[in-house]
Every structure is written in structure tokens, then in C-alpha cells.
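Input/output pair, single chain:
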Amino acid sequence: MGSSQAASRSMMAKLTPREHVAEFFGFYDGTFGKASAIVGPLVFGMVSAQAHSQKAALSSLLVFFAIGLVLMLRVRSQSIPVSDPHSITGATRL
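Output:
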């Protein structure tokens, strides 16, 4: 699950204007980070209680990953060269 969060944060870093990085990441973490910490366990618990099966509960969470995959595949982005002075990190090639 950590890899999907890393991928979404990387994509957000590529799409965020440099002058608004702090604002966008604050909104991202405040909205999606906190919401996923609540919604995931809530859905897991509800499905597990209704189906009396943790396998069914785990498979219900796969729906969220599928939705995320579909949304990520629809995003179009361009690669930023590492030596680009306008990149977010401002890193240069050695």
C-alpha cells in the first residue's frame, strides 16, 4: 500500500506548480491522507461484519485500488528533465 501512496505523491509533485508546492501537499495530505485513514478501516469493518469474512472485506478494498488505478491512468503528464532549473526539487545532474 505504501507504493501506491508514493506513486500518487510523485505524480502530484510532477503536476504541482513550483510556487504552490506547500499549499497543494498540505491540501493533499489533509484531505486524502486523513480520509483514507478513516474510510479504509471503516469499509473493511463494515464489510467484514456484514459478510462475516475478512477475505470479502479485503477484496472490497481492492475496489479502491482499482478506482485509483483508473484515475491515475487518465492523468497525462510530461517528464521533467533532472537538469531543468524549473523542476520542483531544483536538482542538477552530477
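The two ends are 33 Å apart (CA to CA). The mean pLDDT is 78.
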